[in-house]
Amino acid sequence: MDIQPPTTIRFPLLFDDANDPHDLDRTPSPCDGKRVVAVGEMMDFFSVKNDSDAKEEIDLSTGLEPVNVKTGLNLLTWNTSSDQSMVDDGVSSDVEEKRDMSEVERMAILRAEVERMGSENQRLRDMLSKTSADYCALQTHMVTFMQEHKQGNPEDGPESSSIRRQCNDGKAENGKPLIPRQFMELGLAIAGREAEDHLSSPSGGRSSDQLGSPVKAREYWGSRKIGTRKISRSSDKNQSPDQEWLLNNKATRLRSPSKRGADQTESVMRKARVSVRAQSAAAMITDGCQWRKYGQKMAKGNPCPRAYYRCTMAASCPVRKQVQRCAEDSSVLITTYEGQHNHPLPPAAMAMASTTSSAAQMLLSGSTSSSNRTTNANFLSRATLPCSSSMATLSASSPFPTVTLDLTQNPVNLQSRPFPSLGPNFSNHPKATAAAAMFPRLFSQAMHSQSKFSGLQMSKDISPHSQPDEPQQGTHNDSTSATAAIAANPNFTAALVAAISSIMGGLQESGRNGCQNTANEG
DNA sequence: CGATTTTGACCGGCGC
DNA sequence: GCGCCGGTCAAAATCG
């Protein structure tokens, strides 16, 4: 039996190098001369996957199917050579006898190893039970908290009741232990809804099909140059569809603070920001989207300029981002995203987009309930993520609710490494458990950024629409992008859960149809 | 020559 | 009302 050398899923890490046209440093600034060498490297996260896994891999879109998930233990290979010796053709020699003896010894060693793994398996299974219980407790607490503040928000109904129902049982309806996925779905679901609304609204007159291509986006932005400002500022009449989104954005900004209600959700959603702090020499993290720079300003208190970009993948896409180096440490790049994409995203962009979407929704989940901004602020101010206060925080003090992911506390380890099994520190940390339950994406980011989680298979479905010939964002790598991508991808979290479940072996037989993971819907 | 970036001007919000 | 500041625009400059 030939054992295929494991193939790997490689994550392109893209650093825009000094020649990048987006490079902020082209503008003379006090940051000049502080560039460090950009690191480019393909991260080899999942080296335990082989080709056959294409058929066996966990179907993260339809549920946790812990069938034949590779554990990295290479269990199928240890008896191969002995099998061969047992069916030997009979032509024996001293050398072969010695080899047989050594193989018997190896068998004994491996058996001992299997026994050890079995006990470890049992230990991990117990941990999973405890983790599930903790998760349910936390989620119930969260739902209760949200209900107290929402008071009849229709969004809250079925989802939360389902959560409660599942948690009350300690299991999903099909008997499986509850898998933390509701929060993953939430952001995507809302984001999708908003995208639909946008596309179906008059302001979303251009469909993504019409504007999905970069070429058309460029045409759009080119055409927008004609008189946009005058129209937007002189009169709201005779707006072209192209300009309407801009006006909507302005209207959102100009909306009276007293005007709250049904549209507050959308307003907050649009204003919610996700800020990513990362050590990077690159001028801009490559997140898979296409951006066009539309401005640059010196911000108060920071010698480095702040650059403004807007998404150009669709004409009416309201997403913008600001890129600025940290005032205290110019090696830290701060990228702030705002808005929701209203167009199909390339696989490379899905991760960051879903992160921003989820983060925005996370903010929303604490802000839609009450029309009282004070309540929202209280919620946000208390919402420091359990995983690490320095790594991911919510802020209500800034003009817009902002989630900050700080990757600078534990710099991303760029070393490619083989994938053993789950890292030793995984799952036995109460805070980590709680964090994973509450905020799967952030948790997975924490896992990665702390380099404590080093292995499990990721489904190739991480990029469900990926195309083999799609350029992997050039030759420069970007740890920030990859980290964000991993952190953001619901499949990663689901794969994490699936792998644990699979390794523990406790989920296969208890019904597979119920607790379906829909994390990568949409 | 079209696409993209640069950069000074402009606008609105906000605090005083 | 004034000035500061963040954000945006759009003509000019630059790039490929």
From TrEMBL:
Name the UniProt record assigns to this protein: Uncharacterized protein
